[in-house]
Design brief:
This protein is of the alpha+beta class. It is about 20% helix and about 25% strand. The chain has 14 helices and 26 strands.
């Protein structure tokens, strides 16, 4: 220790502690253009920058140059949907198409499309000389499109102008392809009800019938035979299970009890150790494979990754300097720290895994440039319920304590094209009315398209008002001295379907939501009819139909149905109609009130005020 600091500093005028508070040069001008160039002609400046950044500092560590791993793989071989028998896994379609498939609605557009396809087959046979007569007019007369009667039973046709125009334009001019399909699928002849004099024409029509049935069966995926719909209306979710054989016998059962639809990936599954096998069947142990693979590790790279040398500029796709992280954003801070400080410490070992497979990596044998070998096992091998366990891309286990470190790659598609919404129902809570409402925001039309539910409800109500005669003379009710009137109940839009709480059978405390219906009250009409839902989401189950109370949170949920399309192996196209569930937008109020006192209506005064406003 120096006794006299002043004399010590005079003798040692160069201090021994050096620090820098800037990493760029100190400019003598107001602009930084030349300073930030880091010109390579200044070799001394470049060397000092490298020294400051520690590029000359050696590390007592080796770099991996070779790696070997032992991998055990097995494929999914069985599938079990909700309330159906176990079947084999169909690898010709993506797993989403098998799970989400819904029966497509029968509408006018579908009937016209099938009819036009059959008429085109007849035209092609006629152009190639395989038919001696044009039978298209005969089939239009045999299977005609007819316009329904304008009555209350066909209000969904005549209430909407577009639907009525479609029926008017195709009646007597187009063929009902669905009626023809129903006949031939039951084993009927293609010429049933058609006058065919030449035997060759009969043979050609039957050949085109087989082509028609094959094309109709492949236009989109829908349940057929023993297959059922895996959508559970009570839970507003899908439920299914898959299994893969184990090397020592038995099966690994993976369940997806709460799949909301839309995006199927590994996190939708859990390993159910309490279920041994899904069902009896053939032995699939041959799909279990064990192999040892050799790799050359490569450093991980990602956009915006900091380069190890100072004068190299990073890719500007990711701007880490623009990250706005607070002290509570732990995940963001950890990700930023990993990217900036430890990004170049990770290596990539490529491995190809077939879709629909479970892979168990026993471990890695890594050899560095010093010839040292290190055995690396998977992280997170402790208890599955240990909150301090670190794991990534691993499945949760139901029923046991041991964690499962296998990697699961489901046979799901990466990208799906979604069509326009055919149906959409918003399940919301109304605290003022103490009800849950299913708001049909998009309802299907008879022409196969979706339309806003509020507008469709107004069209249907106006149609009923136009065709329903009044049976009450309300003029006498207004001729009195009363200044108020009593209103038993206010009205709500007809696309609001109520779900009322009821007790679960055999339980006096637990409740569930039962689908109900509002009554349609028309002015001057004493009778009232219940308003039925128009979407299959809310009205497909036969009454009484229920929804679990816990499925509708305070934020509400949105359930929609649309066609989906994707490319699968070999370029094959899969199309299906599926349902998905998303979070809602909070609570809403229907305005439903009971026992209201209001001012008496004065129709004469209301007419005068409306006339004045028009002027």
């Amino acid at each position: 220790m120096a006794r006299n600091i002043s004399s010590t500093l005079r003798e040692h005028w160069k201090p021994g502690i050096v620090s820098w508070n800037r990493i760029e040069g100190r400019p003598r001008k107001g602009d930084f253009d030349r300073t930030l160039r880091a010109e390579v002609r200044d070799a001394l400046w470049m060397l000092t920058r490298q020294w400051q950044f520690g590029e000359f500092r050696g590390e007592d560590a080796g770099s991996p140059v070779f790696a070997r791993t032992q991998v055990q793989t097995t494929r999914l071989t069985r599938y079990k949907g909700q309330d159906e028998a176990t079947s084999g896994m169909d690898s010709s379609i993506p797993l989403e198409a098998r799970v989400e498939q819904q029966t497509a609605p029968l509408d006018l557009a579908e009937r016209l499309q099938l009819g036009r396809y059959w008429l085109n087959l007849i035209r092609q046979s006629l152009n190639h000389g395989r038919l001696s007569k044009d039978f298209r007019a005969d089939y239009i007369a045999r299977y005609p499109i007819t316009t329904p009667d304008a009555d209350a039973d066909h209000a969904l046709v005549h209430a909407h102008s577009r639907v009525a125009q479609w029926f008017a334009a195709t009646t007597g001019r187009s063929m009902d392809g669905d009626a023809f399909r129903t006949l031939v699928e039951a084993g009927g002849s293609a010429a049933d009800g058609i006058t065919v004099s030449e035997p060759s024409d009969q043979t050609e029509l039957d050949a085109q019938r087989d082509l028609f049935l094959d094309r109709v069966g492949h236009r989109y995926q829908e349940p057929s035979g023993d297959e059922k719909n895996d959508w559970i209306p009570e839970q507003l979710e899908y439920s299914f299970a898959c299994s893969a054989p184990k090397p020592d016998g038995g099966e690994t059962v993976l369940t997806a009890d709460g799949y909301p639809g839309g995006r199927l990936d590994w996190y939708s599954f859990n390993i159910d150790s309490e279920v041994g096998v899904l069902g009896a069947g053939e032995d699939h142990s041959s799909v279990v494979k064990e192999e040892t693979l050799s790799f050359i590790p490569a450093p991980i790279q990602f956009p915006g990754m900091p380069n190890p040398r100072w004068w190299e500029f990073e890719n500007g796709n990711v701007d880490f300097g623009n990250i706005d992280a607070h002290t509570t954003d732990t995940a963001k801070l950890l990700l930023t720290e990993f990217s900036l400080l430890y990004g170049n410490d990770w290596f990539l070992i490529p491995f190809r895994l077939a879709t629909g497979s479970l892979a168990l990596i026993t471990g890695f044998e890594v050899t560095n440039n010093f010839g040292e070998r290190t055995w690396i096992e998977a992280a997170g091998r402790g208890r599955d319920d240990d909150w301090q366990r670190w794991a990534l891309y691993t499945l949760s286990v139901n029923g046991v304590d041991a964690a499962d470190t296998r990697l699961f790659l489901p046979a799901a598609t990466h990208k799906t094209q979604n069509g326009d919404k055919l149906e959409e129902v918003q399940f919301i809570r109304d605290e003022m009315a103490n009800l849950v409402w299913g708001i049909e925001s998009v309802v299907p039309l008879e022409i196969g398209r979706g339309t806003p539910g509020h507008k469709a409800a107004l069209d249907v109500r106006h149609y009923f008002e136009s065709i329903t005669p009044k049976d009450i003379d309300d003029s006498a009710l207004q001729d009195n001295d009363a200044q108020i009137r009593y209103l038993a109940q206010t009205s709500v839009p007809e696309n609001w379907i109520p779900l009322i709480p009821v007790h679960v059978d055999g339980n006096t405390r637990k409740t569930q939501l039962q689908r109900s219906a509002m009554l349609r009250y028309l002015d001057g009409v004493s009778a009232a009819d219940p308003i039925a839902g128009r979407t299959r989401i809310i009205s497909a189950p036969p009454p009484p139909s229920y929804v679990h109370e816990e499925e509708v949170p305070r934020t509400g949920i949105r359930v929609r149905k649309a066609f989906r399309r994707c490319r699968w192996h070999g370029g094959r196209t899969s199309v299906w109609a599926g349902i998905d569930k998303r979070a809602g937008r909070g609570e809403r109020s229907s305005g439903l009130r009971f026992d209201q006192i209001q001012a008496k209506r004065n129709p004469a005064k209301e007419d005068v005020e409306s006339d004045d406003s028009d002027l």
